[in-house]
Amino acid sequence: MTGYSKLLMSAAVCLAGAGAEAKTLVYCSEGSPEGFDPAPYTAGTTFDASSRPIYNRLVEFEKGTTNVVPGLAESWEVSEDGLQYTFRLRPGVTFHTTDWFTPTREMTADDVIFSFERQRDAANPWNQYTAGISYEYFNSMDMGSLIESIEKVDDLTVRFNLTRPEAPFLANLAMDFASIMSKEYADQLEAEGRMSDLNQQPVGTGPFQLVAYQQDAVIRYSSNPTYWNGQQPIDDLVFAITTDPAVRLQKLQAGECHIMPYPAPADIEAIRADESLTLMEQPGLNVAYLAYNTQVPPFDNPQVRRALNMAMNKQAIIDAVFQGTGETAKNPIPPTMWSYSEETQDDAYDPEAARQMLEEAGVTDLSMKVWAMPVQRPYMPNARRTAELIQEDFAAIGVDVEIVSYEWGEYLERSSAEDRDGAVILGWTGDNGDPDNFLGVLLSCAGVGEANRAQWCNEEFSDLINQAKATADQEERAELYRQAQAIFKEEAPWATIAHSTVFMPMSNRVQGYIMSPLGSHHFEGVDIAE
Amino acid sequence: MTATPDLANKPPAGTRRQMLAEFWFYFSQNRGAVIGLWVTVALILVALAAPLLAPHAPSMQYRDAFLVPPFWQEGGSTRFLLGTDAIGRDILSRLIYGSRYSLFIGSVVVSIALVGGIVIGLIAGFFGGWVDAVIMRVMDVILAFPSLLLALVLVAVLGPGLTNAMIAIALVLQPHFARLTRAAVMAEKNREYVVASQVAGAGRLRLMFRTILPNCLAPLIVQGTLSFSNAILDAAALGFLGMGAQPPTPEWGTMLAEAREFILRAWWVVTFPGLAILITVLAINLMGDGLRDALDPKLKRS
Amino acid sequence: MIRFILGKLLYLVPTFIGVTIVAFGFVRVLPGDPVLLMAGERGITPERYQQLMQQLGYDQPVWRQYLEFLGRLFQGDLGESLVTKSPVLSEFLTLFPATVELALCAILLATLIGIPAGVLAAVKRGSWFDQVSMGTALIGYSMPIFWWGLLLIILFSGVLGWTPVSGRISLLFFFPEVTGFMLIDSLLSGQDGAFGSAVAHLILPTIVLATIPLAVIARQTRSAMLEVLGEDYVRTARAKGLPWRRVVGIHALRNAMIPVVTTIGLQIGVLMAGAILTETIFSWPGIGKWMVDSIFRRDYPAVQGGLLMVAAIVMAVNLIVDLLYGLINPRIRHV
Questions:
Q1: ipTM for this model
Q2: b/e map of B172-209 (b: 16 or more CB within 10 Å)?
Q3: How many CB pairs under 8 A join B and C?
Q4: Do C73 and C102 fall within a single domain?
Q5: For position C215, which CATH number holds?
Q6: I need a surface site. Which of A318, A419, B262, C164 has the fewest CB within 10 A?
C-alpha cells in the first residue's frame, strides 16, 4: 500500500505541476511539539502541531470565536437534568491514508469511545502506551469523575452519562485532549507491537496529514485529500521550528516563512512599518496578575491590598514590558469573554492616596517579596522587568520590595503554598472560553493551596461561582459572574496587571487566516496568493 | 601583577630588584602586553570609581526614556551617551558598573580555582600512589566534559545566579591548575634541595608550600591570566543563556541576554555590552601573552 | 603497540565510571520537578503527584536508580525523554550528524586558514603580516562568540540579506535523510540548488564556531614553528645552503606539526562548548541546542544521556589523538 500511496502522491504532483507549483504555506513555529498525540500534553505548541492540523473533535470552537459548533458530531441532545449528552456522528468521515496506515472503514462511535476510554480507564492497554505518559488535561478538567460512562447507541450515535450537571462540558469536549483517534489504527499498532508510534505517526481526520517530522527543525504536512469539510486551498503545510522571536521575524522578512506567532513586543513597530507584511492582532484571552497572599498579614487586610494596587503604575508596565501591546486589566477575566463586567471601576494610579491608605491601615515600614516568573508566557513577556517596575513603584510609597525567582517548576510549586511569603506574578490563558475556567480555577475556595495563588477563600464569591457552574442558562450565569467580579474588585486578592494583545504577523500573500481567541493556530482554509 | 615574581624564593633584595627589572624588560618589549596592561589598569580604575564616573545610577529607570538611541543617532541625546535599555536605564552607567562584576568574577573564579588547584595538585604530586591516582582520575572526569556544558549543568543544579555561576566555572577551570602543580611537584620532588631540606627536618607542609610551590609559580601565573579571561567569557555565556547573574544586575552577559529581543529594533543594547566583554578579555589576554613571554625562560632566549 | 593501546583504554575505564556517576548524580540533584512542570500553571493534587513519581521511577532509592541506569546503559539504553517520550539515544543519534557536520566544517576552516597563517607569521616573524594576523588571532581568541554570532546575523542576514537566518537548508527542499549530513544528502537528492542552499546555511555558523579554534591553531602553529626554526638542525640545514623554502616546508613544518595536531584534537571539547552557543543562536538542530533545551525543560534522561554521550565522544577523540601522537612520536609510548 505504501507504493500505492506514493504513486498517488506523484500523480498529484504531476497534476499540480501541469497547472502550477504545489502551493506551500510555511509557518515559523515557536517550538518543537512534544509529540503528536495531543492528549498527554498541555502545551499550545504541541496542540498547534498535532490536534489542530491533524485531528478533529466531536464539537469544535467556531473559527475566530469560542462558540461551540458541530465537528465530528453533526448534532447533539442534552437531557433535561443535564446528565446525558447524546451525539449524532457525521457519516462518511475517513481517517488519513498515510505511509503507515490505510483505513478500511469510516469513523464510528468505536473511535470516539476509544479516544476517551484510553484516558479514563487505567486498565485500558492504551492508558500507558509509552512509559510515564499521563493525561493532565483530562485529569485537571476533572473528566474522570464527571463522566460516569460512555455508551455506543449505534455506529453513529454515542452517549455520555455524567455524574453531575456541568455547564462547561460541551466546551470541554472541544478542547485538544478530546481529539478523536482511530481505533482501527490503534488496533493495528497494538497487533504489530509498536504502540508508541501513535505519538510519532499520527492518523486523524483533520485537514492535514503528517508527512515527516525532522526533530527540532521541520514538520511537513500535506492536505488531506478526503477531508470531510472540503479540500484545502494549499497543498503542503510546513512548520519551520524557530525558537527565537527575532529570528522568526527575520525569516518572515526574508520570505523564508509566510506567517509566524509571538513576535517580540519590541518588533511590533518594525512589522507595522514593513509594507510586505500584514499584522493581525487580537486581545488575548488571558490575564496577568500579582497575587497577594491573603492569609498572611498585613496582606489579609483588603485595605492594604487596594493601597498597593493603587501604587502600581500599570500603564508603565504596559509601555515598558508589553511595549504597548496590551491593555491594563481591571477584572480577572479578559474583556473578550462573555460576562465581563464593564461596570468595574479600576483603582486609579495614585501614590499619594495609596500612601495614606497604608497609614490608615496602620502599616508602616512594610517590606515584602515580589515573585517574578523565570519564563516568558503569552500573558507576560518579561516578569522580571515587571517586577523591577513594581519595585520602583512600591518604593515610592515607602514599601521595600525584594524580587525573588525560582526555576519554573519550583516556582509553580512554591507559589501554591498557603504560607508563601510575598506576592507572586503569574497569569492564565483560557482553555475553552468559559468564565469558570478563570474564576472557578483561579479564585474559588477549592483552589486554595493549588491554582488559587492568592490563597483567597471568600464564601460569597465561591458560592456564586458554584451556582453559575450548575446553571445552564448563559444569561443567568453571566449575571452571577458579574456579581462575583464586583466582590473580587472590592476584596482585591490580586492586582490585575494586564491583558496582552496577541499578534500574528504574516506575509501579504497569506489569505483567510483567522485568529483564535484561545490563542491556538489553525491553518484550515488558509490560502497563499501566487 | 608586576609584584608577583618576588614571591618566588626569597632572594636577597638586590637580586629581587634585578629580577623585577629583568621581568619588566621582557614584558615591556611586548607592545601589545603593555597596551593590555594599561587597558586593564584603566578598567580597574573605572570599576573602582564607578559611582563617580557613571552619569546615572545603574538601576535608575527613566520612565520617559525607554530605548533611547546613543547621542550621535537621531533621537538620542547627551543625557544618555550610549542610549537606554527597555526600561529606561542608562547603558553607559550599566556598562561602567558592569566592569565591577567582570573583574570581580575573574578575580574570584581565579582565586578559587588557583587555590583549589594548587592544594589538590600538591597533595596529588607529593603523596603519589593511590591518592594521586584517585585525584587525577577525578580531574580527568571533569576535563572529559566540555567546560561550558558542565558549568551549565552545574548552575542548573545549584540554581541560576552569579555566585553559583562563579563556583561552577571555578570548578571546571581548577583541574588545569591541579595538573600544572602536580607536574611541577613531581619534577621537583626528588631534586637535591628538596631532599636536603627534608633531611634537615622540614615538615611536609612547609616543604610543599615554601620550597616546591615557588618554583612552579611561573606557569601558574600564565594559566591564571588565561583562566581570568576564560572566566569572564564563560560567566558572560552563562548569563547569556539565562543561567548566570540575574537581572537587574548590570552584568554584561546578562545585559546581552536581556537585549537579545531587540537586535532588530535597538542595535545599541546588543552591541555595547558585547564590545565591553571583548575589550576586557582582549586586554587581559594581551597581558597574559606578555607575562608568558617574560616568565617563560624557554621563549626568552629566542 | 597493542599493549600501548590496551593500556590507554584500561586507563579510561575509571574515568568513564566517574563520568556516569557525574551524569547520573548531577541530573538527579537538579532542582525542579519534571512532574510539576508537566502540570504547568494548573497544579496537581498530591495523590496524582505520587502516582506519577512512581510511574517514572523517581520514588526509588538513589543508589538503586543508579544501578538500574548502569544496567540499561550497558544494553545501549539511555532511557526515554520525559518530554517527547522517545528513546534518548535515538534522539541523540538523529541530531548528532548536524553537530558533526557543523564541527567538521568549522575545524576544516580553522585548519585550512590557521596553519598557513601560523607558518607564514613564524617565517616572517615581526613583519606586518605577523603582527596583523596574530593581532586578529588574539581578538578571535578573546571573542564572546554568542555576541559575534548575533553581530554576523544582524549584518549579513539582516542588513545585507546575503545569508539565510537559521536552519540547515531552505524549506523548499525536501528529501529523505540518508546520511544525516545535509551537504551529502542534498547532493544525493539531485534537486537543483539544494546543495547551494545547504552551503549558504552553513556559512555563518561555521565562521562563528571556527573563530576560537582558528585563533588557537594559528597561534599554536606559529609558536611551534618558531621553536623548530630555532633548533640546531634547521640552522644547520640552512647553513648547508638548502633552499629556505625546502627547510621550512620539509624539515620544520613536519616537526612543528606534532604539537599542532594535538592542539587540533584537543579543540573537540572547545567545539562542543562552542556548539552549545552557536546552535542556540542559529537554531541549528544539533546536540548543543538539544542539551540546552533539555536542561531548561528539566528533561532528566535527555540531559543525563547527552552528558554521557558528549563526554564519551570527547574521551574517544582524545584517545585517538593520544594514539596518533604515540604513532608520530614513539618516545612517549612507554609513559
A1: 0.85
A2: bbbbbbbbbbbebbbebbeeeebeebeeeeeeeeebbe
A3: 124
A4: no
A5: 1.10.3720.10
A6: A419
Neighbours of chain B (3+ CB pairs under 8 A): A, C
pLDDT at residue A9, rounded to an integer: 43
Q: Buried b vs exposed e over C155-193: b needs ≥16 C-beta within 10 Å?
A: ebbbeeeebbbbbbbbbebbeeeeeebbbebbebbeeee
Inter-chain contact C283–A200, Cβ cutoff 8 Å?
Answer: no
Name the strands in the sheet holding A24-29, side by side, starting at the edge strand that comes first in the sequence: A24-29, A236-241, A218-223, A208-214
Interface touch B160/A316, C-beta < 8 Å: no
State the sign of the Cα–Cα–Cα–Cα dihedral A152, A154, A157, A162: negative
State how beta strands A277-283 and A494-507 pair: antiparallel
Confidence of residue C182 (pLDDT cuts 50, 70, 90): confident
Q: Say if residues A178 and A57 touch (Cβ distance below 8 Å).
A: yes
Interval A449-495: pLDDT, tens: 878 999 999 999 999 999 998 888 889 999 999 999 999 999 999 99
Residues C53 and C170 in one domain: no
Other Cβ atoms less than 10 A from the Cβ of C59: the count is: 11
* pLDDT tens, per residue, chain B with 302 residues: 334 444 444 445 567 778 788 888 888 888 888 999 999 999 999 999 999 999 998 888 888 888 889 999 888 888 899 998 888 899 999 999 999 999 999 999 999 999 999 999 988 888 888 999 899 889 989 988 888 999 998 888 787 788 999 999 999 999 999 988 888 888 777 777 777 777 777 676 677 777 777 777 888 888 898 899 999 999 999 989 888 887 778 999 989 888 877 777 788 998 999 999 999 999 999 998 888 888 765 544 33
Cβ of B200 under 8 Å from any chain A Cβ?
no
Range picked from A109-118, A410-419, C163-172 for highest mean pLDDT? A109-118
Residue C44 lies in a domain: yes
From A354's Cα to the closest Cα of chain C, the distance in A is: 31
Partners of residue A290 on adjacent β-strands = A425, A495
Say whether A256 and C165 touch across the interface (CB within 8 A).
yes
Amino acid of residue A508: N
CB contact under 8 A, B140 and C18: yes
Provide the domain limits for residue C299. 89-332
What would the grid cell of residue C233 be? 638542525
End-to-end CA distance of chain C, in Å? 13
- How many domains does one find in chain C? 2
Domain boundary residue among C22, C47, C77? C77
Both C225 and C251 in one domain: the answer is yes
Contact (Cβ atoms closer than 8 angstroms) between residue A193 and residue A186: no
Q: Is C244 on the interface with A (CB under 8 A)?
A: no
| Angle ∠(A429,A459,A444) on CA atoms, nearest 5 | 15
Q: Which domain holds residue B116?
A: 103-296
Q: Show residues of chain C in contact with B261, CB under 8 Å.
A: none
**How sure is the predictor about A312, in pLDDT bands with cuts at 50, 70 and 90?**
very high
With b for 16 or more beta-carbon neighbours within 10 A and e for fewer, the A372-403 pattern comes to: bbbeebbbbbbbbbbbbbbbbbbeebbbebeb
**For residue C120, is it within any domain?**
yes
List phi, psi (to 5°) of A87: -110, 135
B163, three cell numbers = 555566585
Residues of C in contact with A217 (CB under 8 A): 167-168, 285
What mean pLDDT is predicted for residues A78-103? Answer: 94
Q: How many residues does chain C have?
A: 335
Which grid coordinates belong to C92? 541523540
User: Rounded to 5 degrees, what angle do the CA atoms A373, A374, A375 make?
Assistant: 95
Residue A67 CB contacts under 8 Å (≥ 6 apart), including other chains:
A61
Report the alpha-carbon distance of residue B152 to residue A129 in Å, rounded: 34
